[in-house]
Amino acid sequence: MIFRLRSILFDLFFYTFTTMYLVFFLPFALWAPRKLIFILFRAWTRICIRMLAIIVGLHYTVRGREHLNATTQNGACIIACKHQSAFDTIFISMYLDDIVIISKGQLASIPFFGYYLKKLGTIFIDRENKASAIRDLVKQSQEAISNNRSLFIFPEGTRAKPGENIPYQRGISLLYRNLNVPVIPVALNTGVFWGRKSMFKRPGMIVIDIQPPIPAGLERDHFMDVLQKTIDTASDNLLNSTAEKRKKKWLKKLAILIIGTSLTIGLAGYFGAKAFLDHTLNKAGINFSTSRIHIGLHTLPTYKLTNVTIKSPAIVESSLAAQSVRLTATGIKKFTLEAKNISIQLYQNIFLTISDLEAYVVPRSENALTFNLPYMHMQNTTIKFGSFSSILPTIEGNYNQNHNDLNFSLNTPRPSPVNLPILLTKGSIALKGNTTKGKIEAQTTFGNSFIDALQQQGTITNTKANELKKALKPIEHERNQDLRQIIIPIEN
Length: 492
Description:
Layout: H1 2-24, H2 26-31, H3 34-56, E1 58-63, H4 65-73, E2 78-81, E3 99-104, H5 113-119, E4 123-125, H6 130-146, E5 150-153, H7 170-179, E6 183-188, H8 190-193, E7 204-210, H9 220-283, E8 286-287, E9 290-294, E10 302-311, E11 319-331, E12 334-346, E13 350-363, E14 371-385, E15 388-402, E16 405-411, E17 423-432, E18 435-446, H10 448-457, H11 462-471, E19 473-474, E20 484-491
Parallel strand pairs: 1-7, 2-5, 2-6, 3-4, 3-5
Antiparallel strand pairs: 6-7, 8-10, 9-10, 10-11, 11-12, 12-13, 13-14, 14-15, 15-16, 16-17, 17-18, 18-20, 19-20
Helix pairs in contact: 1-3, 6-7, 7-9, 10-11
């Protein structure tokens, strides 16, 4: 579509500029000699070719110029050129100071333009009267050659489609036989970019390929065979080369399109997935300041959260906060969970601070917000109960969630620190809306002073304190023989 608009713009320039150019220099052309008219023609050609490159993006290059230079230095010659577009008729003026173009007679009747062609000494062929046209062609050509002016002719007699090889007219063989000068074959691929019956021009690179000259004196049929094979073969090679370049260019554009489309889909998928997951996590009560999803070409997705806060509606006044959470896919529906600097509040009295957490996560298909943690590893965990606290270097265990039922068990290294206030070892909780039901077995290791402190804080009643003291059982410990141990079932 763009090249069509550029072609229309060039045509507007071409016809407007050509008309103004011809009218402006017409008074000068009335008395100017032929050589000055040729200079005007060459200037017009340069401007048109330059604007063709600027507006349409259609450039050209000439190969084998040395064949033309070497031949014309020794005298005049015949230049036989493949004809595929209007471009073919004007480029030759750029490379020869004086040349006679053999053209069809209809061009002579074009206002202004026909007058300039006549002043240039153009030989017009009358196609209506072929016999007299051939005699005039030979006569005028002999005059031009005698004045050391080379001839420029299209041996096919008309424009051909790219790849179309039509028989050559006998006019070229008559000129070759009667003028006794070498013939320079010229191949080109102009029709690929500027069709013979199309007003549209495509951007690209026109190649003009000047072949080595065919010497004078060959037998007529042999000359025609060599000339046509030389021009047509070279032109076909140019077409194949152009087609290959177009194929590579098309493949390059296709690759760019595929990469661009993939990047667009990837970015859309990334931000779409991120927005969906962020919304889902927010809806589930998980709030965070920033998030990021990483999806590599050969890696599974990673979801990262920063400054995470989770508030549980099922456990009153309970919350979880973490500086960062990383969820990385390790397989189909399997993830590795890593969290840093976690703070957990359970009810009003129990606080856990975990520096590092690692766990394997298996999301359940029944509920996207339901997870199983077959393995969990915590380091440097601080458990606080009231004003009492204890630091556990490592806790390993498992945490299983089955729909609304939470089943857990934790195992800690033995012996436990002497000041451990409470340690959950196993239990289950059923979450029903905003209510909690379940059973927890807690094993504690402490002395009577700890129970007295809880009683003074009002955490437990006097009756409960006495029950706890009676339930204490002596245990052996290398640092303190006065410790007691108890397993307390807690019903909720």
